[in-house]
Amino acid sequence: MEEGEGGNFAKVRPVERVLIVAVTSNRGLAGAFNTNIMRAINSLLANEYNAQMKAGNVNILCIGKKASDFYSKNPNVYLGNHNDIYADLTFNNASKIAESIMSDFAAAKYDRVIVVYNQFKNAAVQYVINEQLLPLIPPAATENTKKNDYIYEPSQGEIVLELIPKSVKTQLFKALLDSHASEHGARMTAMNKATDNAGEMLKELRLSYNKARQAAITNEILEIVAGAEALNG
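Above: the chain's sequence. Below: its structure in token form.
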């Protein structure tokens, strides 16, 4: 898709065909980080897009090995994956994925594109977000909105056609960066909890070992005392 082709990305059509972009990680050991994404997508398929799912008009594009491993088992929805992007997570590589998605939307292959990813809040908290990538949602007008007359250079149409594709690419890149940061936070939290749990387990095992050792020593002492009394008798 050419950089300036941004004409139909805000066009709202009846939602008959849906593309869901599932953003997960390539690795595990991150707690419920990946599971939450699959759970959110399955909820969308069971509720909001149930009719499209039954009609076979839902595709899932996976970014992350965990999502592709899960959805590749269902060839009716699995579109493919871009798991290799994490090896070089740059705006240019994210733009290539966005361009492919925009081309499919402009060709009316899909009527709506949703991105499901983990939004980073802090190292301990991540929120699962399902965000509409296409068609673009215009900002809601308010009573305080003023209509000003501006002079554009180049023309307003040219600026819109140039900015809309960049906006979509930036939105997808932001979701990937959010997910990547969330992955590290979730993994750090999961490993900290695992370390704490291992410490608690070690304490319990040490206590059990000491109790068993003390019981064995007590039994040996009782046997010695009983033997000595038998000899004295």
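The CA atoms of residues 11 and 74 lie 30 Å apart.
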